[in-house]
Design brief:
By secondary structure, the protein is α+β, with helices and mostly antiparallel strands. It has a single domain, classed as 3-Layer(aba) Sandwich (Glutaredoxin), CATH 3.40.30. Strands 2-1-3-4 form a four-stranded mixed sheet, with no helix packed on it. The longest helix has 10 residues. It is globular and about 30 Å long. The two termini are 14 Å apart. Its main location: endoplasmic reticulum.
Length: 60
């Protein structure tokens, strides 16, 4: 399965509990221009995979 983009939803306050995500945001995110980050209050980290039209296809 191939996706055209992704949206990473995460709460800024919960990031301290997920050092892998912090590392990705600080060091790796620029390598993936189709990944957007959305900060949502009190949301656990989740990756929303998008199709060619930008529509939600799968949540990880």
């Amino acid at each position: 399965i191939t996706y055209s983009g992704a949206l990473l939803e995460v709460c800024m306050r919960k990031l301290v509990f997920y050092p892998e995500i912090v590392g990705f945001l600080e060091e790796e995110k620029d390598k993936f221009p189709t990944v957007k980050v959305q900060y949502v209050f009190n949301s656990p980290p989740k990756m929303i995979m998008l199709d060619d039209e930008g529509q939600h296809k799968e949540t990880i």
